[in-house]
Design brief:
Order of helices and strands: EEEEEEEEEEEEEEE
Structural class: mainly beta
Largest sheet: 8 strands, antiparallel
Strand content: over 45%
Shape: globular
Oligomer: single chain
Length: 207
């Protein structure tokens, strides 16, 4: 894949992280295999020191978000094998300021919607178990607030969280991530990808 990639439904180019191979077809389907023992996470119970070799080594495909309000969504499916395998929509300012919305395999071997916001160190919040083999994830910006939603049908969206992610002078990048922190890799697919300048009027009304 070329260094800069255009995905139908996304109005800006995205760049893969080094040594990762993302496949994008003409219908906008995006696929990647997560690198073994890869993640983006800074343990809140640890020292808080960023180690890019072990904590920030997941495969990413990111582009510069346009200014203003937006919504960015995709249907995510993962060939789950190991705990914390995940397909992710990622917001990225820098190594200390980022946030991710994940379709992730829990320690109880349940697919779940999970969110993480990193401000120096990461938090970690489970949302709900997904009984289907895929889930729609959506990240949005409304003024200075980011919002996470998830959906089992792509129509009605369940509120996950809202937050502000400040403290960085870097420009916002948005895109995809695939991780396999405890495993040997997993295949992740993103379909029905869309990025719009839609402004959410209500974060909790299911729209």
């Amino acid at each position: 894949m070329p260094p800069d990639t255009h995905i139908p439904g996304v109005p800006f180019a995205l760049t893969p992280s080094p040594d990762t191979e993302w496949a994008v077809d003409t219908s906008g389907h995006v696929e990647v295999t997560a690198t073994p023992h890869s993640d983006i996470f800074v343990d809140p119970g640890g020292s808080g020191q960023v180690n890019a070799q072990t904590l920030l080594n997941a495969a990413t495909l990111l582009g510069d978000a346009p200014p203003g309000d937006f919504t960015f969504h995709a249907r995510v499916s993962v060939d789950f094998a190991s705990t914390f395998d995940a397909g992710v929509l990622l917001l990225w300012f820098d190594e200390r300021h980022w946030a991710k919305l994940c379709f992730e395999f829990s320690p109880d071997r349940d697919p779940m919607v999970v969110s993480v916001v990193n401000r120096g160190v990461a938090d970690d919040a489970n949302s709900f178990v997904v009984k289907e083999d895929a889930v729609w994830l959506r990240v949005s910006r409304v003024d200075a607030v980011f919002a996470y939603h998830a959906s089992t049908d792509g129509t009605r969206w369940q509120f996950v969280r809202a937050f502000v992610l400040d403290g960085s002078e870097a420009a916002l990048k948005v895109g995809f991530e695939a991780q396999s922190p405890t495993g040997e890799g997993c295949r992740v697919r993103f379909t029905q990808v869309a990025f719009t300048d839609r402004r959410l009027s209500d974060l909790r009304d299911g729209s």
